[in-house]
Design a protein that fits this description.
With about 400 residues, this protein is mainly beta. About 15% of the residues lie in helices and about 40% in strands.
């Protein structure tokens, strides 16, 4: 009788563990299949080139304001020595350069050259400018409000600015409004706007590399659902976790009621139905053959997913870059060179996935892609890349 009970409990335990084990086995298989020596380059673009390589780098996120034909980039050269998500921490905090936001007027006809289309946004009245390390950004056009995830030296938070780029002859200005801090948003990664006072914020980890590196590593590689999506109401000061997602990364609205969230640890994008009280209920998922980073949706309703086919290569490059910078006494420019694969795919509501681009060299650690379908321009940003990849289809 005891043996029967033990066997039954063992079968039950295996049945409960099977989905988790199958998921982790799939991810491990992807890491094997996506090894650099097996990687196949793909380029479906009619034209593509890297621009602004000598001006900006390490651009983690971006957004495209189609109505105004402009894009905003969130870039941080300091990521080479300060990356709170991946675990890069220089011992000398005084040497960390701060990040910036840049505005790209890609349709501007009267610019004398392409370089003139890119300007750095002035951060006005912002007390934390010198410790600004931006990741995910979002823009609410009706109120001209810009939201930025900031992984500052003294803790992560969300910064809110009033953005003015109406006069193309003047430097765009983001005027500081307020800072949002909550224990629920331990590591804010990406933001999507629901209304003028409501947000969803993805928080990628519960255990943070800067405080608990071992537990953060376990959380990442076991795909534990300790990160998630937090609902934020700026009027009522409400913060509420509405979904648990392993390594919750990019987030965007597919339509008025459906939210897409990138789960980097599980190599998948999950779909959630939004209820009237802003709670989320998972309704589906699409498995990918790479680890997704950020998401964006174009005006045709097509989801662009960009990410990392082989994270170990990206991590190796990160470690080598930090070591080179710490050991360099002459500011060796080669320290910020490197290679890490990138993949860009599109997903449409009919469930089809199409690979648009895959590379090991042109853009390093690609993490975000944007597309203006009317103007026929696309942009891919690299977590550790120089410049941005501009493409046409």
């Amino acid at each position: 009788m005891v043996s029967v009970i033990r066997i039954s409990l063992s079968i039950l335990a295996l049945a409960l563990l099977y989905p988790f084990l199958a998921e982790r086995a799939r991810v491990v298989r992807l890491l094997v299949d996506n090894a650099p020596h097996k990687f196949t380059a793909v380029n479906t673009f009619a034209a593509s080139s890297v621009k602004f390589a000598d001006r900006i780098r390490n651009c983690e996120d971006g957004l495209m304001i189609d109505e105004d034909h402009v894009a905003i980039f969130s870039c941080d050269p300091g990521r080479d020595v300060w990356n709170t998500v991946m675990g890069t921490f220089t011992p000398d905090l005084s040497t960390i350069p701060h990040g910036n936001l840049h505005l790209y007027r890609y349709s501007q006809k009267d610019a004398s050259d392409e370089e003139a289309k890119l300007t750095t946004i002035e951060l006005r009245d912002f007390p934390g400018a010198k410790e600004f390390h931006p990741l995910g950004i979002e823009y609410h056009r009706p109120t001209s409000t810009l939201y930025v995830c900031n992984h500052g030296l003294n803790g992560s938070r969300i910064e809110i600015f009033a953005l003015d780029f109406s006069d193309s002859s003047k430097t765009p200005v983001a005027t500081y409004q307020r800072t949002i801090i909550s224990p629920l948003i331990r590591s804010p990664n990406a933001i999507t706007v629901l209304s003028e006072h409501e947000l969803y914020v993805s928080s990628d980890h519960y255990f943070l590399k800067r405080y608990n590196p071992v537990l953060a590593w376990i959380e990442t590689y076991l795909g534990l659902p300790l990160g998630g999506v937090v609902y934020v109401n700026l009027l009522t000061n409400e913060f509420r976790t509405v979904a648990r997602v392993p390594f919750s990364n990019g987030i965007t609205l597919l339509n008025e009621t459906t939210v897409a969230v990138a789960s980097t640890s599980t190599a998948a994008v999950r779909f959630y139905e939004m209820s009237l009280d802003r709670s989320l209920q998972q309704t589906g998922a699409v498995n990918l053959d790479f680890m997704p980073d950020n998401l964006s949706i174009d005006k045709d309703g097509v989801l662009l997913i960009t990410g990392h086919p082989h994270p170990p290569t990206l991590d190796k490059m990160r470690v080598e870059r930090l070591g080179c910078l710490l050991n360099s006494t002459v500011g060796n420019p080669d320290c910020v060179d490197g290679k890490a694969p990138t993949k860009v795919v599109e997903w449409s509501a009919d469930g089809n996935i199409k690979t648009l681009y895959a590379t090991t060299s042109e853009i390093v650690g690609g993490c975000t892609s944007l597309r203006d379908t009317v103007y026929n321009i696309g942009i891919t940003l690299g977590l550790y890349g120089k410049g941005v990849l501009i493409w046409n289809q």
